Amino acid sequence: MTHAIRMHATGGPEVFVWEPYDPGSPGPGEVRLRHEAVGVNFIDVYHRTGLYPLPTLPAIVGMEGAGVVEEVGQGVTEFAPGDRVAYAGNPPGAYAEARLIPARRLVHLPDDISTVQAAGMMLRGMTARYLLFGCHAVKKGDAILIHAAAGGVGSLVCQWANHLGATVIGTVGSPDKAETARAHGCHHPILYRDEDFVSRVMQITDGRGVDVVYDSVGKSTFMKSMNCLRPMGMLVSFGQSSGSVPPFDPGMLAAKGSLFLTRPSLMHYTEAREDLLAHAHDLFAVVRQGAVRVPIGQQFPLREAGEAHRALEARQTTGSTVLVVQER
């Protein structure tokens, strides 16, 4: 019998329970996947707390994983038992030793990318891809601001944007994280607790402002992020680790320079099979050529998912956090 981390109620990390779980056999269009590693993301926290409600309880959270195909259902021709695969996105259910998943959500994993590395980069890496190419097409000479520059998404955005030739500015919470961000391509790390990041951004850009702000923090940074943009710049609000952004008058976008605002989701950018494959292909390409390195900052056994969440919420993590499925 395999096991999973299940939650029977929403709440803190203590609602996670390690218990026997058998996902069963795959139905038409499905694959039974044996996980080797699972990624931990803030959306998992939102599901656990009920901020993003799950359809039913008990439930298994987790949107990202990598492992080996054990069995395929009727009509599945793209995958076979023994294939190494990875995924990120709906449906949830990754915090398990084995799971069922629609085959169309999987991608083949190149031989030179490990399952631990894949579990730490699929959601973040494909998020970085749509941020840099979908929300705003970053090009050489652009200036960008990325909040949480030493975090899982931030460290990948910094590297990839640097590879594209952009000037990369990032906010961080400590000198250690500033060094981490700098090591991953952030040209100008800003210690937001020590200095006003708006003033620093304007100083770095000679008063022009940045072309795009990538804001995963939400409530505590949203309004000031607008003040960092050039006229007709783009604010990409793709998370809310500090809380939800309060309602505001859209007229503010005009007042601050005819700004653009988007609240994107990886699920929409990769819903079509061809788009999913394009995102994964581009991510694998920059990783394999060494332009983007995937820093796995922390690893926990799957059964200690609660501890991983405590570290993530306390901002004690750098890079990606991965739950490793131990061999039985």
From TrEMBL:
<dbReference type="InterPro" id="IPR011032">
    <property type="entry name" value="GroES-like_sf"/>
</dbReference>
<dbReference type="InterPro" id="IPR020843">
    <property type="entry name" value="ER"/>
</dbReference>
<dbReference type="GO" id="GO:0035925">
    <property type="term" value="F:mRNA 3'-UTR AU-rich region binding"/>
</dbReference>
<dbReference type="InterPro" id="IPR036291">
    <property type="entry name" value="NAD(P)-bd_dom_sf"/>
</dbReference>
<dbReference type="InterPro" id="IPR013149">
    <property type="entry name" value="ADH-like_C"/>
</dbReference>
<dbReference type="GO" id="GO:0070402">
    <property type="term" value="F:NADPH binding"/>
</dbReference>
<dbReference type="Pfam" id="PF08240">
    <property type="entry name" value="ADH_N"/>
</dbReference>
<dbReference type="InterPro" id="IPR047618">
    <property type="entry name" value="QOR-like"/>
</dbReference>
<protein>
    <submittedName>
        <fullName>Quinone oxidoreductase</fullName>
    </submittedName>
</protein>
<keyword id="KW-0521">NADP</keyword>
<dbReference type="Pfam" id="PF00107">
    <property type="entry name" value="ADH_zinc_N"/>
</dbReference>
<dbReference type="InterPro" id="IPR013154">
    <property type="entry name" value="ADH-like_N"/>
</dbReference>
<feature type="domain" description="Enoyl reductase (ER)">
    <location>
        <begin position="11"/>
        <end position="323"/>
    </location>
</feature>
<dbReference type="GO" id="GO:0005829">
    <property type="term" value="C:cytosol"/>
</dbReference>
<dbReference type="GO" id="GO:0003960">
    <property type="term" value="F:quinone reductase (NADPH) activity"/>
</dbReference>
<keyword id="KW-0560">Oxidoreductase</keyword>
